[in-house]
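Subject: complex prediction, re-run

Hi both,

The earlier run crashed halfway through, so I resubmitted it with identical inputs.
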Amino acid sequence: MKKVILSALLATTFFGFTSCSDNEDPIPEPSIVSTGVFVLNEGNSYSGINGSLTSYDYVGNTATQNAYKAVNGTELGGTPNDAIVYGNKLYICSSDESMVFVANNLSLKEEKRIETRNAAGDTKVMPREFLAANGKVYVSTYGNEVLAIDTLSLSVTGRYACGANAEGMAISADGKTLYVANSDGYTAQGSISAINLTDGTTTTISNSGIKNPTRIFVVNGQVYFLDMGSYDQITWTQSGEGLYRLTDNGSVKLAEASEVKYHAGKFYMYHARYGETATYSVYDLSTGKESTFIDGTDIAAPATIGIDPILGCVVITSYSTANGYADYSADGYAVVYDAAGVKQEQFKTGVGPTTIVFNSAKVTHIAN
Amino acid sequence: MKDYLIKKALLLLVCSLSAMCGLRAQVPARMKSDTLQAVTVTSTLRDRDMRSAAPRFSLSSIDFDTFGVTDISDALHRLPGITLRDYGGAGGMKTVSVRGLGASHTAVVYDGVALSDCQSGQIDLSRYSLDNVAALSLIVGDGDNIFQPARNLASAAAMVIETPQPEKDAATALMRIGSWGYTNPFLSLTKHLGKKWALTAMGEYLYVKNDYPFTLKNGRTTVTHNRQNNMMKSGHGELNLSYSRNAESTASLKLYFYDNSRQLPGMARYYVNENMEHEHDCNIFVQLQGRERLSKRFSLKYAGKFNYAMTDYKDPFYAGNIKDHQYWQREWYATAALLYEVSRRVSLDYSADYFYNNITGSDQADYGDPLRHSVLQALSVRYATGRFTAIGRLLHSLYINKVERGRAAEDISHLSPSVSLSYQLLPRERLFLRASYKDIFRAPSFNELYYFHYGSPTLNPERTNQFNLGVTWGRDYALSEATRGSSFSLSLDVYIANVKDKIVAVPYDMFVWSNINMGKVRTIGMDVTASVTQRLSERHTLLFAGNYTLQKVRDRTPDSPSYDLQLPYTPEHSGSVALTWENPWVNLAVHDVMVSSRWPNIRHYKDTMLSGYNEMGVTLSRDFSWKKVRCSLRFDIKNLLNEQYSIVAFYPMPGRAWMVTVKINT
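This time it finished cleanly. Structure:
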């Protein structure tokens, strides 16, 4: 039943996409379709569990575990932290291995491994997150630098200074300014770096509201960021975590959140504070209103959220739990919802499913 | 794998026993005096082990040489019931868990006084070199000695380290070199000053580069790397001044210094193995202790100690900044024990201990400068007839916790009973039945209580109880005049040990963890030991030592998804065998440590099992004498089969290695 709904959804988009064109010309027309979901599982080094890639296929409704290892025969190693699909390639970075893996996004065949190193090349740096633009894949690192990987030569061709513990990135609409969330560990003194990609200079933005930023978004020229806030020194209660908008002289909190992703004018997010039931909501930028997305009964302990850029369906991954606590040495799972929050599918993942990436393929369709 | 290990152990046992029984020699035994002395020391230890009401297993320095024990971790493998956590190589941390209770439940007693680490609650045994150890004993539950500090009885198990106390003036110089830059000079001097005073000074230095090769299975491929950033330089010195009017009136002062500067290799990686972590540890203590017979029936034992420990951890790779954390621990300790010998059969002891611990750190956020006052009192009674021994004890513990900033943990007050019984079944046969029970707990460590983003001051103590039932049997025998001096000893213990309110770290969120009392653990186990000395002729002896442990250490937390699964890093089967041929030419020892497979996580996650291993070693040794100078040469091959294994996931252990030791003593 659910499968039918999803197939219908897929088909609608597929035909919808092609029928956008009023062209009756029978010339084959390539179009990009969503094919499935990659869930990158960070594993748990301390429990001897390697990271892995789960590949979920929309059409077959099948989840393949350890997909990367199965194709290439080699491990992704400890803490694969982020992945991105760009230009028919899947990029994965493993933090503990100081390595970027580049593979074909459909066959998953590994094409290149790129070590992440400092400028002198004598010290490894820890890669964290990706952003693709301008024919480059940018990698934020814990080496106070963003590396630019050229997607043709598959080598590091540029470096830009940023702050400490750099995590998520975003790029301006003109592709000239790269924003980096510098979480700065637990110091609550994080900042945002604005990198001018034209001249390579970096401007640091900090204000009292920027404590521990981990994700950043640029929408209509506005900068938004997810901040993890700070932890009380005694009770360790988390406070200040949420979605913020950067203003000229500070930042404005829009919603309570511990994870946020952006899609088509909306922020999809959840707020999961210790000891409290997680809430899942959508913040509509046009109305400035937050509404409930799902009640969360399907999600034991959320790991991350992702929105298919073509289909608009929402995937939320979860840890499994042991005695009521997230279990970091057991397989997790992912739940697929339609844009309205109706559950479509559920599939198993590996341990620590903290990154969701959507795969797509160019297909040639003859319009009839 | 485990069947293979058991079969192998049994086969070796059977072979060696039958070899011994089948051999007859003609010449009457006349031992050299030093051999005789050695045998006496060892047999005294064995005899104590056998008569002990609580399980007690010992190795003497003579055993270390005889059976080719190479280092502290090897020594620990030769004792039953122990699960060793070893991060690999000379610089790798080594902690010991006994009978599945966890490393924090094992006390380490060094020359009569307990060592402490209030930060982690665990003692890293890697810093104790065997050259300065006369005897190493594992005591599970309460030993027979009631006349000792209450603190030595406050743990579920104790590793007791005794350093050499030469009775005559002596000098020992030792040099050991081995694979991967291993260089270890050792010097010890004992000088008697008059009839009552003696001064012993010892010093040792250890350098090892430790860049050993290892293989790691990476999917369908196998990668080979060398361990990097694994160098260690450590120095250890002691000065002991002792006074002895007679055996019952003694005092000694010990100054202890240890300094270790080591690189930490971190987890082995598949692709880029570059770690930059560094740790500098320094430990200094002063310890004064003594005993005095006050009257015919009263004796007093006392000790005082000041301990200072510093740890400086640096990780230049961390977060793009240099992460540098320093911690300073201090301890003041005083203890007194009063023994009252009521009658020939009954003796009573009252021991009272006070200790003060605190820790401060360079990073104020890590801790709120916690401190703890501890008051322990023990009342023990021992009843012994010729064949029956009973020991009963009540231990009262009071822990008072304070912090300079933040929230202090709850104070703890607890009464812990223990009982041990031993009965000699036949009047002329050294065949003993033993039974013991102990109820004890441990106070949470400062890390568990306070460490930033990890500790929880609301923790309760972790409680344990254990029941042991055992039989020991030993005999001196001679199949003929030529084989006089042969002996064997055997022991079999079965036990149940429970941990309640086990302290378990649970995620607060992805970044912050907290500790709660949640877990329950139950161990059902069996320890077997056997040692045989078979004299073949005047100058030929075969010796065998073996142990086997079966441990089912299971998670018994209700509703846990891992209910009834074996705890991480705990093998079900482990054991060792050693066979030695002593002869006039070159003594030969072949030894093998076998450990079955283990899981690195409680969920037994697929493909993460660490396979069992079998580390075989060979030791060749020869002693020379020239006037009063004795020279020993020893050659060891460790891990002869070059087995690639890990005790901790992603911390590979060294493969085949050699070591040469030259020792000169007077």
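Chain A touches chain B through 54 residues (CB under 8 Å).

- K.
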